[in-house]
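Usage

Read records sequentially. Each one opens with the input sequence:
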Amino acid sequence: MPVEVELKLALAPEAATRLRRSALLKGRPAVRRKLTSLYYDTPDFALMRRGVALRVRRVGRRWIQTLKAEASAVGALSARPEWEVAVPAKRPDIALLPEAARALIPPEAAGALRPCFVTEFRRTAWEIGEGDGRLELALDQGRIQAAGRSLPISEVELELLSGPAGFLFDVAEALQAAVPLQIEPRSKARRGYELAGAVEAAPHKARPPAIEPGEPAARAWQAMLAAALGQLVANLPGLPDGEDPEYLHQTRVAIRRLRAALGLARSIGMDAPPWAAELRWLMGELSPARDWDVFATQTLPRLGPLLGERLALLERPVAAARRAAHRRALQATGSERLVRLVLAAGRTIAQAAAEGEAAQDWASAVLSRRLKRLKRAGRRFESLDAPARHRVRIAAKKLRYAADAFAALYGARAGRYIQRLARLQDALGAANDAAVAARLLAELDLRQPNAACAAGFVEGCLGGEAREREAGVAEAWEALRRARPFWGKAGRAKAR
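and closes with the structure output:
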C-alpha cells in the first residue's frame, strides 16, 4: 500500500518571494504547475465520515484520480495511505482503483458521487537531497472554493521521497530559519469540507494513543507523545477566533499530557529532550487566558444572582484583563518559537524507537509508581493545607493521564477507576478555582470603592463554596484510596 509522508506548514503570501530566494533553494531547478482539483463525495458526505478523500486533479492535459485514507498525524507530520490512477475525464472512475482502495468506498456511495468543493492553486516544486534522503518541497498558492465561498491557500508541503522521516525535519528547520512559517494541521480536503458545510470546526479532545500490549515500551511512549502533540496542533486553528474558550482549554490539556509523558522518559532509558523546557514557557503564556476564561464564563455567571447590580461593576475590568491575557496567548501560539517547538517534538516522535520491555509491563510499573506518589502526597488528607492539597491534585492528574493512555490495555475496570480519579480531580479543582479567582481579583484595577466591595463579596462566596464542598473532597479521596487498581496481574487477566 503506498503511504504518503509529509509535513505541511503555512506561510504568509508575501513570504513566498523570500522562500524562492532562500539559500535552501538557491540553484535548484523548479517545476511549476497549475493544479485544479475536484473533490467528490455523496450528498451526505459518506466518504468524509469514513475518513476518505477522493479527488480528480487536472495536471497539464491529464486527469489523475487520487484516493487518500485517514491520516495518522504527529504534529505537522502526517502519513496516510494514498492511491493514484489516471482517468479519461474529470469524473472519478472507482473501477480503476486497486482493490484495497475500492474497499474503502461503500457500494451505495460509488453511484452517488458529486463534486463538493474545488481547489485551484499554483504549485512550485523543488527536489532536495540526494542519496538516501530525498524530498519534494512544494509551494502552493491559490484558493479553496465551495458553496459560493472561498479560502486562501498559502502553504509549503514537504513530501518524503526516500530516507528517514528525520530528514523532513532537517529541511523544515532550515526553512523555518529562513522564512516565517506557521503550523497548519488541516489538509486542503479538511478545510474544503469545513467550507462546504460538511463538518463544523470544533475543539479536539484527547484521544487514546495507539498502544499494543507486546510492543516495546519506547514505542508506546512515542504513541503517547504523538497523541498529545496531535491534540495540541489540532486546536491551534481555533484559537485566533476566541469565541470558544474550549480550544484554549484543550490546548492546555494537550501540553499537560505532553509534559506528563515526558516525565516517563527516564523509565525507558531516555533523557527528556531539550524542548521539554519550551512546554513550560508555552503553558506560562496560555494559563492566564484560561484562568480569566473560567472566571468570566463560569465563576461570575454562577454568582450573578447573588451579586445583583454589583456584577456590572466587575464585568468591564474582567473583560479588559481577559482580552489582554488572550493577546498574550495568541502572540505565543502564533510565534516562530511555537513552530520550532512543534518541529522539535515531531522529530523526537519520528525517531526510531529502541527495543525494551513490553508496553504492558512498563504501563503497570508506571501506574504503580504514580499511585504510590499520589498516596504519599495525600497522607493525613484531612489535615492538609491548600498548597499540600494542590500537590495532591497534581499527582492525581499525572496518574489520570497515564491511566487514560494505558486504559485500552486493561479493559472495562480501567474506566471505573478513571472515573474515581476524575471525581477527585474535580473536587480538588473547585478549591483551586477559588484560590485562582482570589488571585485574579487582586490583579484587577478596581478604582471604584463599590467595585472593590464587589470583588470582596465574590471572594467570600467562593471561600464559602469551597468549605461547603469539603465533605465531597474527603469522600472522593477516600473512594479512590480504597479502589482496587486495574493494573497488575488481575488487570492483565481481565484484558485477555
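Summary fields computed downstream for this record:
- Residues 490-496 have pLDDT under 50 and may be disordered.
- The two ends are 31 Å apart (CA to CA).
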